[in-house]
Automatic annotation (TrEMBL):
Gene3D superfamilies the UniProt entry points to: Glycosidases, Golgi alpha-mannosidase II, Immunoglobulins
Residue intervals of the Glycosyl hydrolase family 13 catalytic domain: 257-626
Species: Tistlia consotensis USBA 355
GO molecular function ontology, one term from the record: hydrolase activity, hydrolyzing O-glycosyl compounds
Role: Catalyzes the formation of the alpha-1,6-glucosidic linkages in glycogen by scission of a 1,4-alpha-linked oligosaccharide from growing alpha-1,4-glucan chains and the subsequent attachment of the oligosaccharide to the alpha-1,6 position.
Family, per entry: Belongs to the glycosyl hydrolase 13 family. GlgB subfamily.
Quaternary state and interactors: Monomer.
Pfam families: Alpha-amylase_C (PF02806), CBM_48 (PF02922), GlgB_N (PF22019)
Reaction catalysed by this enzyme: Transfers a segment of a (1->4)-alpha-D-glucan chain to a primary hydroxy group in a similar glucan chain
EC number: 2.4.1.18
Superkingdom of the source species: Bacteria
Pathway in which this enzyme or protein is active: Glycan biosynthesis; glycogen biosynthesis
Protein name per its UniProtKB record: 1,4-alpha-glucan branching enzyme GlgB
Length: 735
C-alpha cells in the first residue's frame, strides 16, 4: 500500500493525534470520504501491530490499514467502496487478535436542542445529558460521556479500558456549548474513568473526576465510575402523595440530624453500609417519635473531616457507605416507615482539590477568577460564580437531581449567609461591591430565588430550608412577594440566646431573662426551625450536657427543662444525634456515639423524655399547628425574672384546646405558684420534665390541677401550682 495514499493529507494532524494535542479528533480519525470521494479510515491504536477494517454486516475484511506512525497510527483507503458503512476493527499484536468498535464512527449523542439549552445554561435535566450514560447507539452498547470544558484545547476520557492514555479517546468538541462528548463502545457499568484535559495554554492538567458522575470511588481514591442515572422502581407512592401535608407549616416536624459515619460503627470501628444503617437507624428514629431524618451531606467528598461540607462529587452519594442504590433504598425505607428525609446541600462553595472543579479546564470555570469574589477565607474553599448561567444551571440541576432521582423530601441549604453577602467574613479591601455599591451578592440572590422557584414548581411537597445566620429579611417568604423562596429557616438567634441562658448558673439567670423573651419579638417573621445542630457540639464547644451548669443531677435537670422549653416553643424542632440521650463527649466524626451511656438511668431517662416530647408535640395540635403564626403563642407571664419563671400559652387552629407551659429555670421548688389560664375547670398535667421516669425528683401536681375563678395574668381563671426544680410543666384542659 502506498503510504502517501494512506496518510491523511495533513501530516501535522497525525502528529497532533499521536501527541494528544488535537482538538478535533473526528476530523482525522474514523471513516472519511464517500459520496464520490475515496473512502479512508484512520485509527490510533497503540497496542496493535496490524489493523483491519471489517464490514459489520458480513464480518469480511474491507480494508487493511497501514501503520503510518510508529506510535500506532494506522490509515488506509477502503477499496471498491463508495458509500460509508458500519464497520468494526480487527487488531493483532503478536499471537493475540481481537475485535473492537471504533468510537470515531459514531455520530454525536447530544441533540441540537440539548446543545442549545446547554449553551444557554438552562438545561433543566443537565444530569440526563452530561456525565457518563450507558446506552445503545446504532445497535452497539457502550457509554456516552459528556463534560463541560469550554476553554480546553483537548479533552479525553481515560480509564483502565485505555490504560489511562489520553491520546486514545479524545472527545468531540461541541463548540456552541463548550461541551465535549464521546461514545465509547463496549464499555460497561463499573468502569473507572476520569477526564484528561489540556488547558488553553497547552498545559496538561491533573486528571479530573467527572463533575456529573453518579458514582465515585471510595476516598481516598478519586476516579469516577460508570453508573448511569439512578433508576428505581420506587415503592413509596403513598408517602410522596401525602408528603405535602407532612411538611406543611401546620404539621409537626421534629428532625433528627445524623452524620452517617458516626451515628453507629461496626466491628473494629468500621463504617456501616447504607442498608445496615437503615436496619438500625430507621426503627430507632421512629420509636423516638421523630418525623424526619436529616443527613449531613451525602455527596461525595474527599476529606472526611469536612463532614461532607466540602463536596466534589455533587451527583454521587458517598461511596463510604456503599453504592448509590444503597442510599436510594435507605430513603425508600424511611418513607415506608413514615420518616421524611432531608439532606444537607452545599451550593455555597467547593474545595480546591486538583481532581475536582477547581480550574477545571485550566481557567476559573466554576469559580471567580478574582479571589475577592472566588475564595472563601474561613474554609480555604472556592466560591461558585453564581452569575455564570452554566454554573447556576449545574447547581440547580443538582438540587433537582436529589429530589427527583432519590426522592429526597427537603434540602437544607448550607451557609446561605456566606452567599448573600459579598463582604461575608472579609475585612475592608478584601471584597468587591456590587454594581450598586452595596454588599449584597445580587447574583447569589437571583440564584437562590430561581433555585427555590424551580424546586417548588417541579417537586410538589418538597421543601427547602435555609441555614442563614443574619437578619436578612424574608428568607422563608415567597419569591413573588420579594422573599428568597425558602420554606423554612433555621432560627440561629433563638439557638444562641437560649443556649447562652441555659448554660448560666441559675443564680444569674434572673439578669438574663431577656435571652428567652427576646426571640418572641421575631419568632414569626420567618418560618423557623429551632436547631440544636452538630455545630453546637464541636470545635471545643463540648456536648449539650456538658454546657449545663451544676452538679450531675442539675446538669440532667437543666437539659431536660431546656428540651421541654424547646419542644413547646414556636418553631419546628431539630436535634443532632446524641443529644437525645446526653452524649457526654464532644462529637467526633471519627467515632461512634457513646451508646453504652443509655445503660445509665440518667441518660436513659433523658432519652425517654425526648421520646415523650416528640409524642407530646405530635399529639397536641396546639403545639404545632400554629408554629409559624403569631396567634399560635401568647405570653401569660414573661416578667417574673426574679424567679426565672416563664409562662406561655400555645394555641392550635379552629379553637382547639390550648396548652399552657410553665418553665422554672431555678433549682427551687415553688409551691403555690399561681398561673392565669384561659378557662376554668380541671387541667391535666400532661407533661412534667421532673418526672421520676426521666430521672427527676417527681415534684409536681399529681397529674391534675383545678382552676379557680380567681382571675390572674389577665386571664379569667387561674391554677395554683407546685413548680418542680429546673422543671417544665405542660397543662391542657381536661377532656
Amino acid at each position: 500500500m502506498n503510504s502517501e495514499t494512506a496518510l491523511p493529507r495533513d501530516h501535522s494532524a497525525v502528529e497532533a493525534i499521536v501527541r494528544g494535542r488535537h482538538g478535533d479528533p473526528f476530523s482525522v480519525l474514523g471513516m472519511h470520504g464517500g459520496d464520490g470521494a475515496p473512502l479512508t479510515v484512520s485509527v490510533f491504536a497503540p497496542p496493535a501491530a496490524e489493523v483491519a477494517v471489517l464490514d459489520a454486516k458480513t464480518g469480511k475484511v474491507a480494508a487493511r490499514l497501514e501503520r503510518v506512525h510508529p506510535e500506532g497510527f494506522f490509515a488506509g483507503p477502503v477499496p471498491r467502496r463508495k458509500k460509508r458503512f458500519a464497520y468494526r476493527l480487527e487488531m493483532t499484536a503478536g499471537e493475540r487478535s481481537w475485535q473492537a468498535e471504533d468510537p470515531y464512527r459514531f455520530p454525536p449523542v447530544l441533540g441540537e436542542l440539548d446543545v442549545h439549552l446547554l449553551a444557554e445554561g438552562r438545561h433543566r435535566r443537565l444530569f440526563e445529558r452530561l456525565g457518563a450514560h450507558p446506552l445503545t447507539l446504532d445497535g452497539v452498547a457502550g457509554v456516552a460521556f459528556a463534560v463541560w470544558a469550554p476553554n480546553a484545547q483537548r479533552v479525553s476520557v481515560v480509564g483502565e479500558f485505555n490504560a489511562w492514555d489520553g491520546r486514545r479517546h479524545p472527545m468531540r468538541r461541541r463548540h456552541e456549548a463548550g461541551v465535549w462528548e464521546l461514545f465509547v463502545p463496549g464499555l460497561e457499568r463499573g468502569a473507572l474513568y476520569k477526564y484528561e484535559i489540556v488547558g488553553p495554554r497547552g498545559e496538561q492538567l491533573p486528571l479530573k473526576s467527572d463533575p456529573l458522575s453518579f458514582r465515585q470511588e471510595a476516598p481516598p481514591r478519586t476516579a469516577s465510575l460508570v453508573e448511569g442515572l439512578p433508576a428505581r422502581d420506587w415503592r413509596d407512592a403513598d408517602w410522596m402523595e401525602g408528603r405535602q401535608a407532612r411538611q406543611a407549616l401546620a404539621a409537626p416536624i421534629s428532625i433528627y440530624e445524623v452524620h452517617l459515619g458516626s451515628w453507629r460503627r461496626g466491628d473494629g470501628d468500621s463504617l456501616l453500609d447504607y442498608d445496615t444503617i437503615g436496619d438500625l437507624l430507621i426503627p430507632y428514629a421512629r420509636d423516638m417519635g421523630f418525623t424526619h431524618l436529616e443527613f449531613l451531606p451525602v455527596s461525595e467528598h474527599p476529606f472526611a473531616g469536612s463532614w461532607g461540607y466540602q463536596p466534589i462529587g455533587l451527583f454521587a452519594p458517598t461511596a463510604r457507605f456503599g453504592p448509590p442504590e444503597g442510599f436510594a433504598r435507605l430513603v425508600e425505607r424511611c418513607h415506608e416507615a413514615g420518616l421524611g428525609v432531608i439532606v444537607d446541600w452545599v451550593p455555597a462553595h467547593f474545595p480546591s482539590d486538583v481532581h475536582g472543579l477547581a480550574r477545571f479546564d485550566g481557567t476559573a470555570l466554576y469559580e471567580h477568577e478574582d479571589p475577592r469574589l472566588g475564595f472563601h477565607q474561613d474554609w480555604n474553599t472556592l466560591i461558585y460564580n453564581f452569575g455564570r448561567r452554566e454554573v447556576a444551571n449545574f447547581l440547580q440541576a443538582n438540587a433537582l437531581f436529589w429530589l427527583e432521582r432519590f426522592h429526597v423530601d427537603a434540602l437544607r441549604v448550607d451557609a446561605v449567609a456566606s452567599m448573600l453577602y459579598l463582604d461575608y467574613s472579609r475585612k475592608p479591601g478584601e471584597w468587591l461591591p456590587n454594581a450598586h455599591g452595596g454588599n449584597e451578592n445580587l447574583e447569589a440572590i437571583a440564584f437562590l430565588r430561581e433555585t427555590n422557584t424551580r424546586v417548588y414548581a417541579d417537586n410538589p411537597g418538597a421543601v427547602t430550608i435555609a441555614e442563614e445566620s443574619t437578619a436578612w429579611p424574608q428568607v422563608s417568604r415567597p419569591v413573588y412577594s420579594g422573599g428568597l423562596g425558602f420554606g423554612y429557616k433555621w432560627n440561629m438567634g433563638w439557638m444562641h440566646d437560649s443556649l447562652d441562658y441555659i448554660s448560666r448558673d441559675p443564680i444569674y439567670r434572673r439578669h438574663h431573662h431577656d435571652r428567652v423573651t427576646f426571640g418572641l419579638h421575631y419568632a414569626f417573621s420567618e418560618n423557623f426551625i429551632l436547631p440544636l445542630s452538630h455545630d453546637e457540639v464541636v470545635h471545643g464547644k463540648g456536648s449539650l450536657l456538658g454546657k449545663m451548669p451544676g452538679d450531675r443531677w442539675q446538669k440532667f435537670a437543666n437539659l431536660r427543662a431546656y428540651f421541654a422549653f424547646m419542644w413547646t416553643h414556636p418553631g419546628k424542632k431539630l436535634l443532632f444525634m446524641g443529644g437525645e440521650f446526653g452524649q457526654e463527649r464532644e462529637w467526633s466524626h471519627d467515632r461512634s456515639l457513646d451508646w453504652h451511656l443509655c445503660d445509665d438511668p440518667a441518660h436513659a431517662g433523658l432519652q425517654h423524655l425526648v421520646r415523650d416530647l416528640n409524642r407530646l408535640y405530635r399529639g397536641n395540635p396546639a403545639l404545632h399547628e400554629r408554629d409559624c403564626a403569631p396567634d399560635g403563642f401568647e405570653w401569660i407571664d414573661a416578667s417574673d425574672a426574679d424567679s426565672s419563671v416563664f409562662v406561655y400559652q400555645r394555641n392550635g387552629a379552629d379553637g382547639g384546646d390550648p396548652v399552657v407551659v410553665v418553665c422554672n429555670f431555678t433549682p427551687l421548688v415553688r409551691h403555690g405558684y399561681r398561673v392565669g389560664v384561659p378557662r376554668g375547670g380541671s387541667w391535666d398535667e400532661i407533661f412534667n420534665s421532673d418526672a421520676e421516669l426521666y430521672g427527676g425528683s417527681n415534684v409536681g401536681n399529681g397529674g391534675r390541677a383545678d382552676a379557680s375563678g380567681e382571675g390572674w395574668h389577665g386571664r379569667p381563671a387561674s391554677l395554683d401550682l407546685t413548680l418542680p426544680p429546673l422543671g417544665v410543666l405542660v397543662l391542657r384542659p381536661s377532656s
